[in-house]
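For consistency, the fold was encoded as tokens, which produced the following:
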Amino acid sequence: MAVTANNDTRNIRLGTCRVTYAGVDLGLTIGGVELTVDTSTHETKVDQFGETVVDEIITGRNIKAKVPLAETTLDNLVKIMPGATLVEETGKKRVEVTTGVGVSLLSLAQELRLHPISLADSDKSEDVVIYKAATPGSMNFAYKLDQERVYNTEFKGYPDPATGKLFYVGNDPTKK
């Protein structure tokens, strides 16, 4: 009996991923990275068929990645908080954060790459890449005795204004 691509246990994937944003590795995560693609549609109905849907048209698609960053460093905070600036004075660091009112997230958006750690760095065959991703910088973490502090970061993808492309899965289409 021949094994087909749809009946092959080697196609089952497990494992975590490495997250890079604007080419910079964001470090370790806790709880798993979650990727969600939502597609909205409009159902078309006509009088002659009553409540039966006769067609359905895609009206939009959105992608987001929830990334629980375990390395809660000041450098990471600046990367995930629009309007944040790392200030270093006399060898001491702090992050100063503005309100961010009026900041366009698209203007700050960079490439977000999720790369399975089970693959060699050079093997991009299963990477998920959002062309333009940004995070508004919302934060919520607890100071608890028995729990790590985590930057629960949510990146949202935006279509590339030049190409209209939102994301791709697999090898980089610009590299032959």
